[in-house]
Amino acid sequence: MTVFESAFADDELADNKSRAVTINGQSVLICRAAGELYALENRCSHQEAELEGGRIRGCFISCPLHGVRFDLRDGSPMGQLTRVAVPTFEVRVVDGMIEVAVP
Ligand code: FES
Fold first, then answer.
1. Which domain holds residue 35?
2. Which residues line ligand 1 (CB under 6 A)?
């Protein structure tokens, strides 16, 4: 069964911004890109930098450290530095609160 945990209010996250929260002991990055919400592990698959604050363009976030771009829809990387996807999580809004399903 998928269990969703509450993160923060939907109206606290502007478009093309990201914010990290700790859920079940895991740092999860919630992003709003072109109006859509996405959630992924807040850790780059290249050298484990936090992805929070990375530039968001379209449905991609760029790692602040070396600039690898990850597709927010499935965590897949672009370019040569890493071929490992960042895990993504289901995200939804219930009664104005963002909720994430983190295993
Ligand atoms: S640590 Fe993210 S691109 Fe290198």
1. 4-101
2. 44, 46-47, 49, 63, 65-66, 68, 81
How close is the Cα of 37 to the center of ligand 1, in Å?
22
Residue 10 Cα to ligand 1 midpoint, Å, equals: 28
At residue 10, φ and ψ (nearest 5 deg) are -55, -35
Q: How far is the CA of 84 from the centre of ligand 1 (A)?
A: 11
Domain at 26, CATH number = 2.102.10.10
Nearest residue (by CA) to ligand 1, atom 1, is 47
Closest by alpha carbon to 7, among 31, 35, 43? Answer: 31
Phi, psi of 11 (to 5 degrees): -80, 5
Q: What are the structure tokens assigned to 13, written together? A: 């996250």
Q: What is the pLDDT of residues 28-82, one digit of tens each?
A: 999 999 999 999 999 999 999 999 999 999 999 999 999 999 999 999 999 999 9
Number of folded domains that form the chain: 1
